[in-house]
Amino acid sequence: MKQHLSKTEFLQKVFDFEQHKEWRFEGDVPCIVDFSADWCQPCKLLGPILDELAKEYDGKINIYKVDTGAEPELAAVFGIRSIPTMLFVPKKGKPQMTVGVIPKGTIKKAIRDVMGVAEP
Hints:
The structure is a single chain. The chain has one domain (about 5-115): Glutaredoxin (3-Layer(aba) Sandwich). With about 120 residues, the protein is an alpha/beta fold. It contains 4 helices and 5 strands; from the N terminus they run E-H-E-H-E-H-E-E-H. Strand 4 (about 85-90) and strand 5 form a beta hairpin. The mean pLDDT is about 95. Strands 1-3-2-4-5 form a 5-stranded mixed sheet.
């Protein structure tokens, strides 16, 4: 299941950018952070795909949603200029970002290649 993150939760579960200058993942399993907004039509297309992936990869990855309207500071920290934007965060190494709605198969490839998580 997708989980909505506030700034406080983001600092605890993904990256505490207030304490660290260099990237340091705070989570236990890799994650996808979906930067989106309720009014965004493309975001509404991506939502069901991420819901399916959250079920398929349950326990292997976390899928988080950040509402850029409610959390403008998080959007600014990552330089989010258009939505939806997804941040693919591996357990070790640097995250990678994609912009726009991408097909489920492409997301699964990123989960495998960027995050190092095999298909269930």
